[in-house]
Amino acid sequence: MPSWSTVRDDFPILHQQVHGKPLVYLDNAATTQKPRSVIDALVHYYERDNANVHRGLHALSTRATDAYEGARARIARFLNAADPAEIIFTRGTTESVNVVARSLAHVLKPGDVILSTEMEHHSNLVPWQQLARATGAKLRFVPIVGADAEGGLDLAALDRLLTPEVKVFAFTHLSNTLGTINPIAELCARARAIGALTVIDAAQSGGHAPLDVRALGCDYLVLSGHKMCGPTGIGVLYGKRELLDRLTPTETGGGMVVTVHYEDATWKPSPERFEAGTPNIAGAIGLAAACDYLDALGRDAIARHDHELGRLAYEKLAELPGIRLIGPRDGRSGVVSFAFEGVHAHDVVTFADEDGIALRGGHHCNQPLMRKLGLTSTTRASFYLYNTPEEIDALVASLRKILKFFGVS
Ligand code: PMP
Questions:
Q1: Given this model, what pLDDT does residue 2 score?
Q2: Number of neighbouring beta carbons within 10 Å of residue 72
Q3: pTM to 2 decimals?
Q4: Which of 121, 174, 175, 360, when mutated, tests ligand 1's pocket best, judged by the most ligand atoms within 8 Å of its CB?
Q5: Burial, 194: exposed, middle or buried (Cβ in 10 Å; 0-12, 13-18, 19+)?
Q6: Which of 204, 211, 223 best tests ligand 1's pocket when mutated (most atoms within 8 Å of CB)?
Q7: 229 part of the active site
Q8: CA atoms within 13 Å, Cβ hemisphere of 321
Q9: Which end of the chain is more exposed for a tag (fewer CB within 10 A), N or C?
Q10: Which CATH number fits domain 39-296: 3.40.1190.20, 3.40.640.10, 3.40.50.720, 3.30.2350.10?
């Protein structure tokens, strides 16, 4: 069992004052902070091993290649993938979804259905809209239940929606706005039963919960390194080997080809066929260091910690006058969103910042969901492994001050 109080010592950035107050960082759904071991892995790479991968025979290039491919193998282990070749490095979740969606442009046809849910981040929505437009496929959405989406996804509606025309079912594991934890194993099993491909958006769960792609039986899973203690600019597209080798690459160029003639070229198998050009070598190495860090703490323990803080925050915030909390009451992750009638989220975030508290206000890249809930924005507090119950108290005290200032009581 990790000691959560010493975990904070691993994160240099947390030990600072903002506007004269100790930093309370509650914007983890946007991006997480980096432990010393990840920062050290980046520095070590740039100070000792930096060279381009795959193309050199000199010592540094060999070390850089070993470290880069070692990172791929580490992430395969992190997700329990069958083969490191199933791990494609991308810039992040957004690019990963785009790669899958664009590469399916040759597979889908008019009348096919792309199924998603009403709670998706724009990054797991807009690329599917583009695919639908390009192929004539239709988009459908699993509805959310309840005026505050407190009931999660309408699983009963799945029977009606999972028709043989559904070729792809793309859904989020944890909602970045609602804090909902979706039953991804069940969603994968039900999609598999009708032969639909499954795409899991694990942007919010990558470093927050155990993930086992083989046990889930998903076809694709996407995540972002920066939301799980890793660097920005690196992410993962996991795909089943036999599927990846059939996909058409969406970017072409150096590194992904076998033979090139003036008029034509042939592609390498995955993962290289999806990694044209010089990759983010340092980012991959930093992400592998993040996997080591998270696994040393234990992802089950991290999930319990997140959920406990999410539950505690929800309970304490519910006592504030005029608050509307969205998402589930029970069984929630560490993401908590709320709105106050008459006080805009941007004002809440600006005032909280004066108290050293980092929150996020806006639509959280969930415009259709916001519209559905009759909101334009919410304030979001999102917790991670270094957050404490005392920080929730600081948040509640700051919010009380803000409400008083705006005359809400
Ligand atoms: N999906 C979800 C659920 C997210 O929370 C985010 C980031 N907020 C994304 C996708 C996009 O991730 P990125 O910006 O790292 O590509």
A1: 64
A2: 23
A3: 0.97
A4: 121
A5: middle
A6: 204
A7: no
A8: 11
A9: N
A10: 3.40.640.10
